[in-house]
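Support request, please re-run this one:
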Amino acid sequence: MILWGATPAGSRASFYFPGTTAAEILNWAAKLYTVHNIKPVDAHTVQVPTGGITFLPVPQGTAVNFAGLLMLQGAGPAASTEYTFPVTSAQLR
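Re-run finished. Output below.
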């Protein structure tokens, strides 16, 4: 679960997970959610729009210490200037 705080509207976030595939994440999202906006970027990366709350499924059977990298692509003035936006993430079981 990701809480985007004051991240500018129109921003996008990419998550790179070397321990799983984008296809696995998309398969779990399809099983868990009627509608989602998780898109594949490459074999290990998915992208979502920011804003509100995002639920991103971690495939079952993975280790508790599941590594990942969050990359945020800002929109508007944040796209070309350095800004800091607090983003909160939590693992739900």
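The chain has a mean pLDDT of 85. Residues 2-13+23-89 form one domain.
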